[in-house]
Design a protein that fits this description.
Layout (H helix, E strand, L loop, with lengths): L10 E5 H15 L6 E5 L1 H5 L3 H4 L8 E4 L2 H9 L6 E3 L6 H5 L6 E5 L3 H8 L8 E5 L11 H16 L5 E5 L12 H11 L6 E4 L1 H6 L1 H5 L3 E2 L25 E13 L4 E2 L5 E2 L4 E6 L16 E4 L2 E4 L9 E4 L11 E5 L6 H8 L3 H5 L7 E5 L8 E2 L1
Parallel strand pairs: 1-18, 2-3, 2-9, 3-4, 4-5, 5-6, 6-7, 7-8, 8-9
Antiparallel strand pairs: 1-10, 10-13, 10-17, 11-12, 13-16, 14-15, 14-17, 18-19
């Protein structure tokens, strides 16, 4: 057992070197002939890993993409001096008055921020504007007519020196599918054909499933893949050459031999269909492991796959140890985050996605950073 984990009921490990490896692997997929640069997406505190923990692994990124302006300030405070893309743009006119960060890029999804920027004072280092297209995902962004008008209005701001330039941003709604971007891409390319400016279209799924499209853009925006998880439904991260950056560890704290027909759990929700050996894992929904995890979700017990039995409590997960080599109290358990048990595989069993699990750990889970050099440090999440 890692010395830093002694006495811990549950803990996570975050590996900055894995993030660096994944960034390099994604850049290699673009190929040496591509000029595409990489916005490393660090939304939700770097997908739950902690920005300050993974930032050393992102030194090779060309820029960081965040959700909101406060996150951009946090990146500067953490020591990032490169470009910053705020995907959520501006929340109100007051934010437009306080754009003091250099090398700032703002994604705009509607007309009001253009008004706010027009009313804001000029700056020595004005922001770049990325116009977001609604596209096939349709949540936010300009439609075709609105996009052209927004571009026209932004050219006025550029001539006034209120913005540094105008760029184009799209987000595909079906990028994980083999045929998921062709129509959406053709529509957007036609829209911006006569509108100069850098382009960013591809997230992790688009980069991995449609590398030719990614190579032809100016910026790509990988998120989940940086942390070693695949967004593709038919292939996991390790098969793509990615390394999990977070693993979640706990241990066996109880073992029972259960007779056929015996019931376990609240309201007797688990019924033994045959004699079985049940292990109690020292984690639960109080740590962010979902309460509604279905029976059969895999965990690693002392290096062997074992299925959960459902009925997750705040502090315990029952697992079926029947047929495994002998397991003792204190045996190590990994809930996700190894090449044998990547988080996306666990997420599929739960009916969710890797990003939800990674961003759901609760503050009571200690995190042991795995630095790129030097001894480990123990801290609270």
């Amino acid at each position: 057992m890692d010395g830093n984990a002694i006495g811990l009921r549950v803990h996570a490990r975050v590996d900055a070197a894995a993030v660096a490896h994944n960034l390099a692997a994604l850049r290699a997929r673009l190929g040496p002939a591509s000029a595409a640069r990489i916005w490393a997406t660090v939304k939700a505190d770097a997908y739950g890993h902690g920005l300050h923990r993974v930032l050393p692994g992102l030194a090779g990124a060309d820029g960081l993409a965040v959700s909101q302006l406060a996150d951009a300030r946090a990146c500067r405070a953490a020591g990032w001096n490169g470009p910053l893309l705020v995907l959520g743009g501006l929340l109100d006119a007051e934010e437009a008055q306080r754009l003091a960060l250099p090398d700032l890029h703002l994604a705009l999804s509607h007309d009001r921020p253009i008004d706010w920027l027009g009313d804001a004072p000029s700056r020595a280092a004005p922001p770049w504007i990325w116009l977001r297209y609604a596209g096939d995902i349709g949540y936010t962004g300009f439609d075709d007519a609105g996009y052209a008008e927004a571009y026209r209005r932004c050219t006025v701001l550029a001539r006034q020196g209120r913005i540094a330039g105008i760029a184009h941003l799209n987000h595909y709604g079906r990028a994980e599918q083999p045929d998921g971007i062709a129509q959406a891409d053709a529509r957007f390319q036609a829209l911006i054909r006569d509108l100069p400016g850098p382009r960013s279209f591809c997230n992790s799924a688009a980069l991995l499933r449609h590398p030719d499209a990614a190579r032809s853009t100016d910026w790509v925006r990988p998120g989940i893949a940086l942390y070693g998880a695949s967004p593709l439904p038919d292939i996991d991260g390790p098969a793509l050459g990615l390394r999990p950056a977070m693993s979640l560890h706990t241990r066996i704290i109880g073992i029972r031999d259960v007779a056929k027909g015996e019931r376990l759990g609240y309201n007797g929700s688990i019924v033994a269909a045959a004699p079985m050996r049940v292990g109690m894992v020292a984690s639960g929904y109080g740590d962010g492991y979902p309460r509604r995890t279905p029976a059969g979700t895999p965990v690693l017990v002392d290096g062997h796959i074992a299925p959960t039995l459902g009925a997750v409590t705040m502090d315990l997960i029952p697992v079926d140890l029947t047929g495994l080599p002998p397991v003792a109290i204190g045996a190590p358990v990994v809930l996700w985050g190894t090449p044998e048990l990547p988080v996306e595989k666990v997420a599929r069993h739960m009916g969710t996605i890797a990003a939800e699990l990674l961003t759901s750990l609760t503050p009571r889970v200690p995190v042991i950073p795995v630095p790129m050099a030097g001894p480990d440090d123990l801290e609270q999440k």
